[in-house]
Amino acid sequence: MRCLLVDDEPGIREGLAALLRRKGHEVRTAGDCAAAAAALEQQHVDIVITDWRLPDGTASRFVAGCACPVVAISGHPEEVDALPALCATLTKPVSPSRLLEVLAVSVPPAPPAAEDRLPIDVQQLVEEVGTHLPAGAVVELLDEGPFVLLRAEPVHEGALPALEALGGDLRVLASAGRTRLELRLCRDGRPDVDVAVVRPDAVWPDTEVFAVDFHDTTISAALFVDCLDRAASCRANGRRVHFLNVPDRLRSAATDQGRAHDMPMKDKVGPRLPAVFADLWSQL
Questions:
Q1: Nearest to 244 by CA among 196, 207, 203
Q2: Which of 40, 67, 84, 240 is most buried, judged by most C-beta within 10 A?
Q3: pTM, rounded to two decimals
Q4: Span 166-176, pLDDT tens digits
Q5: CB burial class (10 A; 0-12, 13-18, 19+) of residue 122?
C-alpha cells in the first residue's frame, strides 16, 4: 500500500520507512506538517502514519480532512484529537510489530511488487562480501532504499576483520556451531527517499535536489558528458544533483576526458549506523 510517514526525527522516520518498504509497502516521508500537507496534495496515499507533535504544529493541521485512514503516534496519547480519519493511536516508543498489526487491519495489503534487478552498487557489494565467504555460503540481501542489509552463513572468524573493514553495522551470531553475520550499511550513494529520481534521458525536474539513475542505461559516452555539463550548470545555480549507478564504461569515459571530478556522486557505502536505529532494528 502507499503510506505517508511523518516524523521530524530522521532516525525514526527512515528506520520505520525501511521497515515498511521491507514489508512491500510504498513509502513517502515528511518531516513536518507543511511537507506532509504538500505530499497529500501531490499523491494519493492509502494510509498516513504520523507523529502527533511536529515542529510546525500538531498533525491535526493536515489529517483533519484526510480521506484515508490515519495512525497517530504520540508520547501523550490523550492529546490526540478524535478525528474521523483516525483509526489508531500508538504510544511512543512505537513497537514495529504493533504498527504492522494496525496496518494489516486498516488497509488491505498491497500485492507484492515484482522483483527488480539489483542496482549496480548493490551487486558490487554482494560480490565484495562474497570474496570473504566460504564456498557454498548462503547469502541473502535486502535492498531497503537508504540501507542495505546482507545476511550470510556460514562465515569463518578469520574473515571478520576484512568484513568489518567494509564499514556498516556488523553483527555476528553463533548458533548450533555455525557463525552467521548480518551487515547493515548506510547507502550514501542514494539521496533521501523524498528526492525525485529520473532517467538521464528524461526531463530533469526543476527542484533544488534530485537524482539521475543510470542503471541499465544505453546512452552514449557523448550524452553522458552532456549530463555532466547539465549537472555542473545545476550546481552553479545552487542545485544538487546525485548520479546513481553509473556503469564502468561511462565512468571511464568521464575519466578519459578529465571529467571524473565532475561526477556528483558519493561513496556507495556510508559510515556506521547511528545508535538511534539500534532499538528499532532489533525488532525487525
A1: 196
A2: 40
A3: 0.46
A4: 767 778 887 77
A5: buried
Give residue-wise pLDDT tens across range 79-109.
888 888 889 899 988 888 888 888 888 776 5
Cell 549496480 -> residue = 120
- DSSP characters over the chain: -EEEEE-S-HHHHHHHHHHHHHTT-EEEEESSHHHHHHHHHHS--SEEEEESEETTEETHHHHTT-SS-EEEEES-GGGS---TTEEEEEESSPPHHHHHHHHHHHSPPPPPPPPPPPPHHHHHHHHHHHTTS-TT-EEEEEE-SSEEEEEEE---GGGHHHHHTT-SEEEEEEETTEEEEEEEEE-TTS--TTSEEE-TTSPPPSSSEEEEE-TT----HHHHHHHHHHHHHHHHTT-EEEEES--HHHHHHHHHTT-GGG-----SS-SSPPGGGHHHHTT-
Closest listed residue to residue 243, CA positions, set 191, 185, 187: 191
pLDDT in tens, 134-161: 877 888 877 666 667 788 888 887 888 8
**How many Cβ atoms from other residues are within 10 Å of residue 44's Cβ?**
9
For the stretch 146-160, what's the b/e string if a residue is b when 16 or more beta carbons lie within 10 angstroms of its beta carbon? bbbbbbbbebeeebe
- The Cα–Cα gap between 19 and 281 comes to 8
Give CA–CA dist 102/10, Å, rounded.
Answer: 22
The count of residues in the chain is 284
Structure confidence by residue, pLDDT tens digits, 104-137: 887 765 544 444 455 566 667 777 888 888 877 8
